[in-house]
């Protein structure tokens, strides 16, 4: 076996954990600091249990954000202003790796049901994916939205060149959708339910209903040098995130109420999200995660959502 990036990381992780450099330097008394990115809805940040759990283990938390989606958190990690991405879509993570960023996967999650959808306004006259020919659809580039649109067009035989892909992140896509500047929107849970309540949006293609397997996964990434030096910190952080997800799975209404203290969604939106009862299961990177992310990446690269092929094992560490 050649000495790959993955094997070099693995060898480093077998050594005693070293004090990190930069923003995660060991603090007085042997304490650590970890810089975590977060989104508009962050139950771990708002509830307080997550931070206390890490504090009790000698780790102080600095929150960096909020961020609208996964891609900018990856940039924050790559440039050294944060230590962890925020548990978002694997598609932009794959593209960030293909673009040369020295990041590595450390954790992944599957979710059920998979609710990301292409939505339309009632006034659009669009009632099915086949009606998208000649339309303008908002998606996040090399992200979950673009993957979803590509999958929908392929399944229903709509030529990709008959649809205009308008690349917008959620903060810009939402008003464009609401004002009719775009005809449809590929989006995930949260902004999706808000659009349903605000604009009467309808789902015409939903991931879990239309696709027989998951292609895009929630993931955490760190810098390669951070993974070499901070294996124990990574394990503790991911364990704390997993505990938060397990709690939220069992306490949906309370979790959404806490998260909504920041997002300020109307109660009707919160009620819709709670009723869907999405269950998220986090794990450190393992053989199953590598295999599933690889299958998803292969699908995406074959359809040129990603700029090339990627070997997920070469960009993962199993802790």
Explain this structure.
The chain has 319 residues and is an alpha/beta fold. It folds into two domains: 5-110 and 216-264 and 278-315, 3-Layer(aba) Sandwich (D-Maltodextrin-Binding Protein, domain 2), CATH 3.40.190; 117-210, 3-Layer(aba) Sandwich (D-Maltodextrin-Binding Protein, domain 2). It is 43% helix and 19% strand. The chain is built from 14 helices and eleven strands. It has a five-stranded mixed sheet with strand order 7-6-8-5-9, with helices on both faces. A four-stranded antiparallel sheet has the order 3-10-4-11. A two-stranded parallel sheet has the order 1-2. β6, α6 (144-155) and β7 form a beta-alpha-beta unit. α12 (252-263) runs antiparallel to α13. The longest helix has 20 residues, at 231-250. The chain starts with a helix and ends in a 17-residue tail after the last helix.
